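Researcher: Predict the fold of Shikimate dehydrogenase (NADP(+)).
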Amino acid sequence: MPDGTIRAITGHTELLGLIAYPIRHSMSPRMHNLALAELDLDYAYLAFEVDTDQLADAVTGLRALRVRGWNVSMPNKMAILPLLDDLSPAARMVGAVNTVVNDDGHLTGHVTDGIGYMTALREAGIDPAGRRITMIGAGGAGTAIAIQAALDGVERIDIFNRRDAVWPVAEHTVQTIAEQTSATAVLHDLDDIEDFRACVAASSVLANATNVGMGTLKDLSPLPDPEVLRPDLFVSDVVYSPARTLFLAQAEAAGCRTMNGLGMMLHQGAAAFELWTGTPMPLNQIRAELFGEPQED
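Model: Structure tokens for Shikimate dehydrogenase (NADP(+)) follow.
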């Protein structure tokens, strides 16, 4: 409803949601429910704490209940793939999903994270075309960002990750970028500090695409060497709760311009919203409600 009043739930109300762990910090329920109220659409959006060991049961239940759609966040973005019936071309390329659409029991996975991040980056005044980016993390969000950055004309992206279970995923991401885009992508071991220093020194953007800085990791930073920070480096974080992570605080102390994950969250959410409802999210109103920004005419 245009005045922001939440529509009463009835027997016709359809359900939307978010499955992740942890997730109680998420702003997605407020964002989507505000948008639904603004457009007077008969849906309700809820958050469900679902870890990977509960994921299969959760997806079976959501399918059976004909929940219209849901977002997927860490740690489920890749684990959900075998539980779906189909993938969008972008999700197939990325190998991860952050949005599921349920069409009468047929589940299609989409990925909007990369679009959300790149849109937020442009809003911050950073045109990715021709730039070199260094990124920490190669999981679901990192993969989506890396591939979208390559599609959007980034010259080179250096991806740093530890040699853990995600390493093979990162190798596949680099191969995909090489085969399907004109960008250069190189995978590095995050434990190689000298390599990290050299890549950041040659980059104009440094991005954290891990969950370090939130939840039980809120007192940690993914940055292996704060000395790499310099005033002309743009530093971004996919984490938005807390709004100012230790990573961003380190960057600000070094004089860097920074961006947290709120803009990415907003724009990836808007893309998902339209997939479910067929209606664009009223971004100006949502910005005003969530971020206190004035509405544009």
